[in-house]
Design goal:
By secondary structure, the protein is of the alpha/beta class. The chain has one domain: 3-Layer(aba) Sandwich (Carbamate kinase), CATH 3.40.1160.10. 36% of the residues lie in helices and 19% in strands. The chain has a nine-stranded mixed β-sheet, sandwiched between helices. A two-stranded antiparallel ribbon has the order 7-8.
Length: 237
């Protein structure tokens, strides 16, 4: 039984690379295998890729922010093409839609194209972020969630839930299982950025933050099993 039939899934670039490999195909193949299992369940998934394994604009020093963010958008296209290749090899029909026009590389994004592809049984990879500087890929995933009519936005993170502080640095950090949008904002929690939280609140889209690295977490998430932190309009610690 699926709790969420159509989802907007955000994957960080670090899920696909790291260390000496900008794009680590062992990691890409592992992510693709989880997404293939998701597709086999009948979940309609739109996946927004980050680009942090290739480029992090905030580390660019005095570089112009517009140009730095444009480089980050291009990095997400590289990640999307790598993931698409692995998904196709697993027999998962998959389309890359990019918010940055590059017709010789990928199809251009529109909500109509995305919804048509999802309805046809294709997994959709959203590349190019929002197509605009100054917006994170988390915000892009929230925008896509609203545009495709997603039942939820899933944030696959490097930690297993939302905490009151960095659990790697603070042993007393509180782990939350359920929060409201307003609690995330008022407590200053780093679940995602403020723009993404506000958009999901306005559209009534629940957010589920969890660790992708833990086996079967994404399958548990779409089934509604207890995993990570749920952020919605009710909330409780």
């Amino acid at each position: 039984m699926l709790k969420y039939k159509r989802i907007s899934l955000k994957l960080s670039g670090e899920a696909l690379g790291g260390g000496h490999e900008t794009v680590d195909f062992a990691k890409v193949e592992a992510v693709a295998a989880q997404l293939a299992a998701l597709h086999a369940l009948g979940v309609e998934a739109g996946v927004t890729l980050g680009g942090g394994n290739i480029w992090r604009g905030r580390s660019s020093g005095s570089m112009d922010r517009n140009r730095a963010d444009q480089m980050g958008m291009l990095a997400t296209v590289i990640n999307s093409l790598a993931l698409q290749d692995c998904l196709l090899k697993l027999g998962v029909p998959c389309r890359v839609l990019t918010s940055v026009d590059m017709p010789r590389v990928a199809d251009g994004y529109s909500s109509r194209a995305a919804q048509a592809a999802l309805a046809a049984g294709e997994m959709v990879l959203f590349a190019g972020g929002s197509g605009l500087p100054f917006f994170s890929t988390d915000t892009a995933a929230a925008l896509k969630a609203a545009e495709i009519g997603a039942d939820a936005m899933l944030l696959a993170k490097n930690v297993d839930a939302v905490y009151s502080a960095d659990p790697h640095l603070d042993p007393n950090a509180i782990r939350y299982t359920h929060l409201s949008y307003d609690e995330v904002i008022s407590k200053g929690l780093r679940a995602t950025d403020l723009t993404a939280i506000t958009l999901c609140k306005e559209q009534g889209i629940p957010i589920l933050a969890f660790a992708m690295a833990q086996e079967d977490n994404i399958l548990k998430a779409v089934r509604g099993e207890a995993v990570g932190t749920l952020i919605d309009g009710t909330g409780q610690v």
